């Protein structure tokens, strides 16, 4: 077991996050951050209408919704794109984060953020893995298991990688209403 060294968040990062809360005119305790895109997996399997419907439902429940993306699809919502440590300070202070599974999730979980829902693609093929060695490693590792998907999920699961069980992990199954309901129950509790 190797000890992971966490990045340091300094007072300036928290100050910058507070400035962003003011600029966006949001209450951190009532803020949900949505991260709809990624470079690790193909985020395009989830249509932007899913994220927009989720955001509208959260707003109906009284939450401030902020997107963390440079994609044009979400311009009519509040948006932030901070330097990485300011982003972590921002994320530590808000109600919940809903994210397509990406590398930023590893950083957030590594920084002990547990108010996270990570949505995994139903096909866990890593799209940025152009390197032949990485592909061969995945191929060899997968051959040791009965189910390719189960193995890939075990490799990429935040709860598995960080030895936790408090991250809400959802595999996208195209049932948008069911997934949105599951996320809302996680945030608000059962019997909303």
Could you characterize what this model shows?
With 192 residues, this protein is α/β, with parallel strands linked by helices. It has helices at residues 11-24, 48-60, 84-92, 103-110, 132-142, 148-156, 158-161, 176-188; strands at 31-35, 64-67, 78-79, 96-100, 116-120, 168-171. Helix content is 42%, strand content 13%. The protein has a 6-stranded parallel β-sheet, sandwiched between helices. The longest helix has 14 residues, at 11-24. Mean pLDDT is 85; it is low at 140-146.
Major sheet description: 6 strands, parallel
Number of helices, counting only DSSP H or I runs of 4 residues or more: 8
Uncertain residue segments: 140-146
Shape, please? Answer: globular
List keywords for this structure.
single chain, 192 residues, alpha/beta, 8 helices
Topology:
Blueprint: H1 11-24, E1 31-35, H2 48-60, E2 64-67, E3 78-79, H3 84-92, E4 96-100, H4 103-110, E5 116-120, H5 132-142, H6 148-156, H7 158-161, E6 168-171, H8 176-188
Parallel strand pairs: 1-2, 1-4, 2-3, 4-5, 5-6
In brief, what are we looking at here?
The chain is an alpha/beta fold and 192 residues long. 42% of the residues lie in helices and 13% in strands.
């Amino acid at each position: 077991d190797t000890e992971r060294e966490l990045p340091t968040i300094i007072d300036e990062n928290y100050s910058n996050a507070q400035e962003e809360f003011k600029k966006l005119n949001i209450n951190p305790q009532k803020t949900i951050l949505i991260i709809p895109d990624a470079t690790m997996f193909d985020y395009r399997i989830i249509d932007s209408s899913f994220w927009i419907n989720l955001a509208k439902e959260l707003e109906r429940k009284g939450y401030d919704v902020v997107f963390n993306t440079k994609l044009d699809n979400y311009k009519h919502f509040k948006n932030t794109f901070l330097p990485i440590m300011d982003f972590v300070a921002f994320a530590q202070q808000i109600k919940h984060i809903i994210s397509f599974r990406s590398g930023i999730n590893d950083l957030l979980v590594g920084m002990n953020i547990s108010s996270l829902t990570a949505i995994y693609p139903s096909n866990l093929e890593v799209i940025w893995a152009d390197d032949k060695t990485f592909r061969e490693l995945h191929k060899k590792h997968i051959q040791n298991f009965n189910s390719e998907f189960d193995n890939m999920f075990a490799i990429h699961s935040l709860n598995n990688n960080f030895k936790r069980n408090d991250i809400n992990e959802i595999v996208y199954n195209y049932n948008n209403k069911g997934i949105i309901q599951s996320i809302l129950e996680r945030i608000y509790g059962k019997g909303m």
